[in-house]
Design brief:
Layout lengths: L1 H32 L3 E6 L2 E6 L4 H12 L4
Antiparallel strand pairs: 1-2
Length: 70
């Protein structure tokens, strides 16, 4: 029973570590792109949502991501 509890704790700790890493990454992306960014993690997959508010804002964000290659 103790081993099972320890396994659950280790699993929860890994989940918390991943969540903390994703929050940190989300904050870094917000600062870099200058807009709201949401990272949604589900199982082994997820998605990144980047908000923009005008065509010009979209262009600015794309340039920030791709550089001058767009």
């Amino acid at each position: 029973m103790v081993r099972e509890t320890q396994k659950g704790y280790a699993s929860n700790q890994r989940r918390d570590d991943l969540e903390n890493q994703l929050v940190s990454l989300q904050d870094s992306m917000k600062r870099h792109l200058g807009t709201k960014v949401h990272i949604i993690h589900r199982g082994k997959k997820g998605k990144i949502e980047i908000e923009y508010y005008s065509p010009e804002d979209l262009e600015r964000i794309v340039e920030a991501i791709l550089g001058n290659t767009a």
